[in-house]
Design brief:
The protein has 703 residues and is an alpha/beta fold. It has 5 domains: 1-143, 3-Layer(aba) Sandwich (Rossmann fold), CATH 3.40.50.720; 166-309, Succinyl-CoA synthetase domains (Rossmann fold); 311-467, 3-Layer(aba) Sandwich (Rossmann fold), CATH 3.40.50.261; 509-585, ATP-grasp fold, A domain (Dna Ligase, domain 1); 591-702, 2-Layer Sandwich (D-amino Acid Aminotransferase, Chain A, domain 1), CATH 3.30.470.20. It has 23 helices and 30 strands. Strands 9-8-11-10-12-13-14 form a 7-stranded mixed beta sheet, sandwiched between helices. Strands 20, 25, 26, 27, 28, 29 and 30 form a 7-stranded antiparallel beta sheet that branches. Strand 5, helix 4 and strand 6 (104-107) form a beta-alpha-beta unit. The longest helix has 18 residues, at 116-133. The radius of gyration is 31 Å and the shape is flat.
Length: 703
């Protein structure tokens, strides 16, 4: 850690920054078209209890408060200084604040690393300057802080025109200020709220994990939400995730950059490198961060978790006033991999009192009840769900119907006298007609959705979280490295397989031939039939180049195949370096897998596996995981893939699943041992038969 960072880390904590006795506003104004004007008014509107020190050289008074021409004119040291002046004015003002002894700077101003090389240089100067004074920095290029728990508003958003800040035990950290305030607004409208919200901007000093760590320690916060564009420190991210798990606080996240366009947009927004989304997704899965792809679903889940902090959700019951709405909701859940519950005999008996035969299955068609009065039916129905042993949560997709039907369900599920024993989530598909029901739920602090799909996404994430178990500590198999010296460069197939063999991976026997007679002799030694492949560091796709010959049955065919493969390779790429032809034993199998590994720039070595060979496109799902891996974690991941069904037995055929798992584990340890290098490993295919498996083609690059 640099001296500057050590100095900054010794500064005030976020908890201290959120409890300032005095705040100076550099750029304060009454002009509501300016950030400084709106932020100043919102700070006063929401009754900040400390002393406010407006800095404005052109005014003697703002909003009835005395102003100061500069920070140097203050007669007391502000605990926190907020900067809304243009970027080129910030450094000078920060120096004044540092000399005064201020310990915290909130920089709203943009124009730093978000604005190219010149801005990046300015941001580094800001960091060095603040570090020299022991000041911590929030931002720059952020929208500030909204803390209902501390009654502290340092944000200019128009959503803050409300008189009171609704609060729920949910914290929110966002790399986008506009998204933070957008979902504050939405959460408030649907009966939710937050303890604290942080727009972290460029994260020059205090970064996303600092704020998540604060929320982990904050007794008022039970659930943590985050919008992430890029991770500054991979190990810090893992460590913070583990702290959240240890504290029993769910950390929910939505991350931008799943597509190349999203990644580019994230970088241009806050200069955050989005990284490889598949790797980030794997790290979240491993460390217990619940990753979603929808902000609304994240908020819905957070509010439901806050109401039912110990609930485990795997199977769902649907109660609906519309048979069609129930069918669509069931489809949405199924698409997300969430099962409907199978009602127990007591549940079916209770429902049979009020529903005709066939109408009380899951989904329950509330509109088809045989008892006209909706209130007693709502009570019996929901109580049956609450005691049903196979039901973990209730989804009520409220399509258009007489409003008293759903109103009865709302009254039962939100009763303060008898709180719902299990989560009940509403999805309103209708428009203005259902607004009264939405308002009623919001007034009672119960969040809702306007989409069954959004609700299904939230339920899938809850199920995934309920099923989560930590990874086991990897164990290096016998005969699996490490090597005292590793090869470097682009290895040909023979060299790649030699390296794999050193790690105990099964490879089919082969010899490199540099002439037709050598190829014939090698084939005779190995035994027919053989396969022959061109060996060249410049030809990756050998089949495409006509560089593979199969089912070679005799020495003469082997000699002829040698000449043909070289000729094909020269036609394909005239300047390719040709090292010869690899003659191998012909391997047969019932399935083909791909095993790959590489170094991720942020999170280090990862292993990838799934269907390979001719199944690559047909069964395209892959597992990406941090390397190394434990065999049990590999097995669980394989079982979740379509190719796993083939390995576990299909139409009476069981394949060498144990051999596949062992090969993946060994490849993951090779990846681990290559962690100091930029590397790529590709085994495709790993040929799997009933009793063994072989890496029949491989390529390794170590730089």
């Amino acid at each position: 850690m640099s001296a500057v960072l050590k100095e900054m880390s010794a500064g005030p904590s976020i908890a201290q920054l959120l409890s300032p006795q005095s705040i100076a506003l550099v750029g304060a104004s009454e002009d509501q078209s300016k950030f400084g004007g709106r932020l100043f008014r919102m700070l006063l509107k929401h009754r900040y209890a400390g002393k406010v020190l407006p800095i404005n050289p052109a005014r003697d008074e703002l909003f009835g408060l005395k102003t100061y021409p500069s920070l140097e004119q203050l007669d007391a040291t502000p605990d926190l200084v907020v900067f809304t002046v243009p970027a080129d004015k910030v450094l000078e003002q920060v120096a004044h604040a540092g000399r005064l002894g201020s310990r915290g700077a909130l920089v709203i101003s943009a124009g730093f690393s978000d604005a190219g090389e010149a801005g990046l240089a300015r941001e580094r100067q800001l960091l060095d300057l603040c570090g020299s004074y022991g000041m911590r920095v929030i931002g720059p290029n952020c929208l500030g802080v909204i803390s209902a728990a501390n009654q502290l508003v340092l944000c200019s958003s128009p959503i803050l025109e409300i008189d009171e800040l609704p609060s729920k035990p949910i914290g929110f950290v966002s790399q986008s200020g506009a998204l933070m305030t957008t979902y504050f607004d939405r959460a408030w409208a649907m009966g939710g709220g937050f303890t604290h919200g942080f727009s972290v901007g460029n994260q020059a000093d205090l970064e996303l994990c600092d704020f998540v760590d604060f929320l982990i320690d904050d007794p008022a916060t039970q659930v943590i939400c985050s919008y992430i564009e890029g991770v500054k420190n991979a190990e810090r991210f893992r460590a913070t995730a583990r702290r959240a798990v240890a504290a029993g606080k769910p950390w929910l996240a939505v991350k931008a950059g799943r597509s190349s366009a999203g990644s580019a947009a994230a970088f241009s927004h806050t200069a955050s490198v989005a990284g490889d989304h598949a790797v980030f997704e794997a790290v979240c899965r491993e460390e217990g961060v619940t990753l979603l792809n929808d902000m609304g679903a994240m908020l819905l889940l957070a509010n439901a978790m806050a109401r039912h902090p110990h609930a485990q959700v795997r199977k769902v019951a649907i109660v609906t006033p519309s048979g069609g709405g129930g069918a669509l909701a069931a489809d949405a859940l199924a698409d997300q991999g969430v099962e409907l519950s199978t009602f127990s005999a007591p549940t079916r008996a209770a429902l049979a009192q009020h529903f005709p035969s066939g109408q009380a299955d899951n989904p329950v068609d509330f509109g088809a009840r045989s008892t006209p009065d909706p209130k007693p039916v709502a009570e019996v129905t929901l109580n049956a769900m609450f005691t049903d042993t196979d039901t973990d949560a209730v989804l009520i997709p409220a399509s258009m119907c007489p409003q008293e039907w759903v109103d009865a369900l709302v009254d039962i599920s939100t009763s303060t006298e008898r709180p719902a024993a299990k989560p009940v989530v509403y999805a309103f598909e209708a428009g203005a007609t259902s607004q009264g029901l939405r308002d009623k739920l919001a007034q009672r602090g119960c969040a809702y959705s306007n989409s069954s799909l959004e609700t299904a996404i939230a339920m899938e994430a809850w199920k995934r979280r309920s099923d989560w178990t930590p990874r086991q500590r990897p164990e290096r198999p016998h005969g699996c490295g490490p090597l005292s010296a590793l090869p470097h460069g682009v290895l040909n197939e023979a060299q790649s397989k030699e390296l794999l063999a050193h790690y105990g991976l099964p490879v089919n026997q082969g010899q490199l031939a540099t002439s037709a007679p050598e190829a014939a002799r090698a084939a005779q030694t190995i035994g027919f039939p053989v396969v022959m492949k061109i060996v060249s560091p410049d030809i990756v796709h050998k089949t495409e180049a006509g560089g593979v010959a199969l089912h070679i049955a005799n020495a003469q065919d082997a000699a002829q195949a040698f000449e043909r493969l070289l000729a094909n390779a020269r036609r394909y790429k005239a300047d390719a370096r040709l090292d010869g032809v690899l003659v191998q034993a012909m391997a047969h199998g019932e399935a083909e897998l791909l095993i790959g590994a590489r170094s991720d720039a942020q999170f280090g070595p990862v292993v990838v596996f799934g269907a390979g060979g001719v199944l690559v496109e047909l069964l395209a799902e892959r597992v990406v995981a941090s390397a190394p891996m434990h065999a049990s974690d590999v097995g669980a991941a394989l079982d979740a893939l379509p190719i796993g069904h083939l390995l576990n037995g299909y139409r009476g055929k069981t394949l060498d699943r144990a051999g596949v798992i062992d090969a993946i584990v060994r490849a993951s340890w090779l990846a681990h041992d290559l962690r100091a290098y930029a590397f790529e490993l590709d085994i495709n295919p790993l040929m799997v038969s009933r009793d063994r498996c072989f890496a029949v083609d491989a390529r390794v690059q170590i730089l």
